[in-house]
């Protein structure tokens, strides 16, 4: 029998996913997958012998990906293409702002994927996100696993040869123009992944023999990945199974530990210890502030701070639970003084008129 569960999301609220046992990617006719036991090289969301989705065809195609994730053929002569992966579970509340963000852009420079889970929701034909739905009737209600699944779909999409992958919260908004965002990401030699060593209280399960407890990392799930690191994530089996089988509270570790630890183990020099998605943890503890219309602070001033910040100060998650919680200067290819953030969250739907009035994104 189908079961409703809430999608754990650290600030992307109101996402309910129906978990059953069939995955269909509707967006580009990429895949049609069937339910099996977890007995192949690619299994998403399984824990021990619990039945889960085994994407046989997806597994076969993922194994064929080059380890470094290079694209071959004519695509090397084409511009970078950024895949935006919206983990929303349904409509994208700030579509108006995203439409402004993508307006008049060359569609060969971006791709859109919206993870709607088992929802029957279909974007109307006049929507920016028409035909971009990724439907999953089997992946658990967890942002990390939903992201991993959607990432595999975007990597294997032969019609859209994606080279960068941005995980976007449904409650997030773009802060800059598409061109600024595009140039910032595609000029980087590193993926933007917050991956820090947490205080000892977050390292309490048996990680041996795969890795030492001291190598556990935590961070925001909202990351921007080069194709190389996206490929590492979808091809990984060993670390995934270790987390699924041994970690306590797996519904949380797949969101803020698994990917961060995996990339730190496999290519620590290839990732930054920061995210390009702003969130304000200064007064709210382990969950970020939700920005509403009518709140007492000056939103225009706060947005200005988001856009101009060049040091990730104590607003972020890292200052709460990291061993080293000093502010992180924002660098691009080793050059300091660059702006930190391209996107911001968490915004309530009622803030849309205000954001439109404040000319967000800043085009």
TrEMBL record:
It holds the Pfam family Branch. It is a single-pass type II membrane protein. GO terms for cellular component: membrane. GO terms for molecular function: glycosyltransferase activity. Keywords: Glycoprotein, Glycosyltransferase, Membrane, Signal, Transferase. Residues 1-32 form the signal peptide. It comes from the Eukaryota. Its main location: membrane. The keyword Glycoprotein applies. This is Uncharacterized protein. The gene is LOC112273977.
């Amino acid at each position: 029998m189908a079961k409703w569960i809430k999608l754990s999301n650290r600030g992307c609220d109101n996402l309910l996913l129906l978990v059953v046992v069939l995955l269909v990617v509707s967006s580009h006719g990429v895949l049609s997958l069937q339910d099996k036991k977890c007995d192949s090289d690619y299994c998403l969301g399984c824990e021990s012998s619990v039945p889960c989705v085994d994407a046989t065809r997806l597994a076969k195609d993922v194994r064929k990906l080059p380890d470094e994730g290079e694209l071959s053929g004519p695509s090397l002569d084409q511009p970078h293409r950024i895949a935006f992966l919206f983990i929303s579970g349904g409509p994208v509340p700030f579509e108006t702002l995203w439409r402004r963000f993508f307006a008049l852009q060359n569609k060969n420079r971006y791709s859109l994927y919206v993870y709607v889970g088992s929802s029957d929701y279909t974007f109307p034909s006049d929507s920016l996100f028409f035909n971009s739905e990724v439907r999953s009737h089997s992946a658990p209600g967890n942002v990390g696993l939903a992201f991993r699944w959607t990432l595999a779909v975007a990597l294997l999409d032969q019609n859209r040869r994606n080279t960068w992958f941005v995980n976007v919260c449904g409650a997030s908004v773009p802060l800059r123009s598409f061109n600024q965002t595009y140039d910032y990401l595609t000029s980087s030699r590193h993926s933007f992944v917050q991956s820090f060593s947490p205080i000892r209280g977050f390292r309490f399960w048996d990680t041996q023999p795969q890795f030492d407890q001291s190598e556990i990392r935590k961070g925001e799930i909202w990351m921007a990945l080069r194709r190389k690191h996206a490929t590492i994530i979808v091809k990984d089996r060993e670390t995934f199974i270790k987390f699924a089988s041994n970690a306590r509270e797996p519904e949380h570790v797949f969101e803020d530990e698994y990917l961060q630890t995996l990339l730190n183990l496999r290519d620590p020099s290839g990732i930054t210890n920061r995210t390009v998605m702003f969130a304000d943890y200064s007064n709210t503890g382990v969950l970020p502030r939700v920005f509403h219309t009518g709140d007492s602070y000056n939103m225009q001033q706060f947005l200005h701070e988001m856009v101009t910040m060049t040091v990730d100060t104590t607003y972020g998650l890292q200052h709460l639970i990291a061993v080293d919680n000093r502010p992180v200067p924002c660098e691009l290819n080793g050059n300091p003084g660059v702006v930190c953030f391209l996107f911001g969250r968490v915004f309530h739907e009622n803030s849309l008129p205000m954001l439109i009035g404040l000319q967000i994104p800043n085009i």
